[in-house]
Amino acid sequence: MKAVYFAWVRERIGKAEEELDPPADVATISDMIAWLKTRGQEYVYAFENSRSIRAAIDHAHVKHDAPISGAREIAFFPPMTGG
Amino acid sequence: MPIPTIRVQRGTFDAAAESAALAAGRTDIGAIVTFTGLCRDEGGRLARLDLEHYPDMAEAEIGRVAEEALRRWPLLGVTIVHRYGPIRPGEAIVLVVTASSHRVAAFEAAEFLMDYLKSNAPFWKKERLVEGTDGGWVDAKREDQEALVRW
């Protein structure tokens, strides 16, 4: 699957997108965040206050308990400040 | 239900022209509310905002918010334009135009749309200050999240 990052999540991780292949026991957005945090200090930094991070699966907002199976693109970003 | 007009663009827009386009050739519209959100200079310290967005999601999410407004109010038309990229103080950022037979629906729907766009449309503002430095990412306001409760 493709992971995409925006705003300060992108800046902290140091990349805008990447292809990921999480292990089979990574079932939800929460699991995904926990797994990403094992990948390096940049991810620990980006997700240090993980409850404030928003996620989207295939371009629609989801909560952290959402299942990720079948997702083509998962996005992580801070609370939005549009308008 | 009318089909909303939604655009996500880098360039500026003409609010009067968008409003006129919504009403063109129609005689059933009794009220049009046009809201334009502008970039403030924050007391003179802001040089510009850089608006980052999620291109693949932005139009889809704005569309979902517009569809919800169309379900809740008897609207005859909706136009939403949201800009991204560098935006200087005095320039417009976002446009919401709602049309209905009577004013209450148009007023309420425009407020609903703006409240939801602020918290749900995938845009993020970064401040660039007049002294040439990076002012950091704008924090989401608690009031903006709380504003959703009334709907």
Characterise the protein shown here.
The complex is a heterodimer of chains A (83) and B (151). Chain A is an alpha+beta fold and 83 residues long. Chain A has one domain (2-77): Ubiquitin-like (UB roll), CATH 3.10.20. Chain A is 25% helix and 23% strand. In chain A, strand 3 and strand 4 (60-62) form a beta hairpin. The two termini of chain B are 21 Å apart. Chain B has four helices and eight strands. A four-stranded mixed sheet of chain B has the order 1-4-6-2, sandwiched between helices. A four-stranded antiparallel sheet of chain B has the order 5-3-7-8, with no helix packed on it. Chain B has a single domain (5-150), classed as Molybdopterin biosynthesis MoaE subunit (Aldehyde Oxidoreductase, domain 3). The mean pLDDT of chain B is 96. The chains are: A alpha+beta (83), B alpha+beta (151). The interface between A and B is medium-sized, with 17 and 30 residues.
